[in-house]
Specification:
By secondary structure, this protein is an alpha/beta fold. The protein has one domain (4-136): CBS-domain (Roll), CATH 3.10.580. 38% of the residues lie in helices and 22% in strands. It contains six helices and seven strands; from the N terminus they run αββαββαβαββαα. The protein has helices at 4-7, 21-31, 51-58, 87-97, 116-122, 125-136, and strands at residues 9-10, 15-16, 35-39, 45-50, 81-82, 101-106, 109-115. It is globular and about 45 Å long.
Length: 138
């Protein structure tokens, strides 16, 4: 049984909910990633911020990324996966919520992120194909 812990990218760094989207973009560039978990001042996960969110929701609406807080772009409760949840649960959660990245939680701690690419590298082709199809359809 393959678990989230086995296929995740560990060491996920958060962007603070009170930090600006511009700071998030700089952090994404520095880390070479396209998404960051958003963490509140209470150190709880608030959501995920993607490079697409910055482009569409901030720049596409003529908003100033130096003024918009990362937390403003968090949408509802964050969709997560437990570190010991199996591959079937990862696929089910990604498909149900149509997300390409899942923060991985161990207890209350963020321990990593499972991305669509992580799944593609770790699971057999038919399962990956089903996931890609589900995430690519409207």
């Amino acid at each position: 049984m393959t678990t989230a812990r086995e296929i995740m990218t560990g060491g996920a760094e958060c962007i603070g909910a009170e930090e600006t989207v511009l700071e998030a973009a700089h952090k994404m560039k520095q880390l070479g990633v396209g998404a960051l978990p958003i963490c509140g001042t209470d150190n709880k996960l608030k959501g995920m911020l993607t490079d697409r969110d910055i482009t569409v929701k901030v720049l596409g609406n003529d908003r100033d990324p130096a003024q918009v807080k990362a937390g403003e772009l968090a949408q509802g409760e964050a969709v997560t996966i437990g570190a010991d949840d199996d591959a079937e649960e990862i696929l089910r959660t990604m498909t149900q919520h149509k997300v390409r990245r899942l923060p991985v939680i161990d207890g209350h701690d963020l321990v990593g992120v499972v991305s669509q690419a992580d799944v593609a590298r770790a699971l057999p082709n038919p399962e990956v194909g089903d996931l890609v199809e589900a995430l690519s359809s409207d």
